[in-house]
Amino acid sequence: MGSHTPSKLPAIDFTKPELKPGTDQWDSVKVQVQQALQEFGCFQALFDKIPLEIRETIFSASEELFDLPLEIKSQNVSKTPYHGYIGQHPKIPLFESINFDDAHVLENVEAQTRTFWPQGNIIFSEIIQSYAKGIIELDQMIKRMILEIFQVEKYMDEHMKSSEYLLKLIRYEGPRTSEAQVGLGAHTDLDLVTILYQNEVNGLGVQSSSTGEWIDCIPSKDSFIVIIGESLHAWLNGRLKATYHRVMLSGDKPRYSVGLFTVPKAGYMIKAPEELVDEAHPMLYKPFDYTELYSMRFHASNEGRYTESGLKGYCV
Ligand SMILES: O=C(O)CCC(=O)C(=O)O
Ligand SMILES: [Fe+2]
After folding, report:
1. Is the confidence metric ipTM above 0.95 for this complex?
2. Which positions, given as ranges, span the membrane (predicted)?
């Protein structure tokens, strides 16, 4: 008695073939998105446009990549903080990741792939590109729905033109403990929207934006976890909160996940549109360039001045 049933993230069906703006189906899914974002700040999206074969092989491709010797992986450096290979960090020892910029363009993936396999690896590149292409379709539907919810859909084209896509492959080593260990500490993402997909090893938790309760995500092969980032929170002038999330792991199996991060292009100033600013809703954040803020947050975190919300530290 009195026991509390843990909440489950709502699962919203994006698989209907006729899911097009202006249709009844679209409006009904949009209402579910609105409710889920108000209550949890997050939801699972059921989506079948990425062939199951690609969804399965993305994890074996990821395994092939992370199994390469460390000397090869660490050659994949980038001038952009957090891009390229990340691993062996003392604060997150189980975590490794590799980012692919604009991975829906095959030539980009192939060029980056050659830093790992000098002769190229076309099968790997095609899996990454095909996954990225499909998941971007889901991202764009979700973004359009969110803009419609706040009646600012006239900015959709501007959003599309000013955004780029980062595909991040992630591996967490199994900690070989029965007690959960931190894979990635609680944080918000700085981007606009993140869409996560994982292998069968669970561990992702999200914090409900209305109650603060931590909810374990138990997605299926057909579901993707949708998370709101701080840039969208700022652009919407606080109408949606950025979702806190973390990864806790136990057991010995590695957890593989893949995240699509939509990020504003360098030089694009994130500024809430006038429709969302009034006396009752004064502008919460000074306009900012995502890339600048991102690198400030990165350097601050290296100097130990990391604040959980980069925006609160720099843009108020
Ligand atoms: O591995 C996951 O599911 C979460 C990854 C994540 O939160 C991140 O890379 O920002
Ligand atoms: Fe994250």
Report:
1. yes
2. none
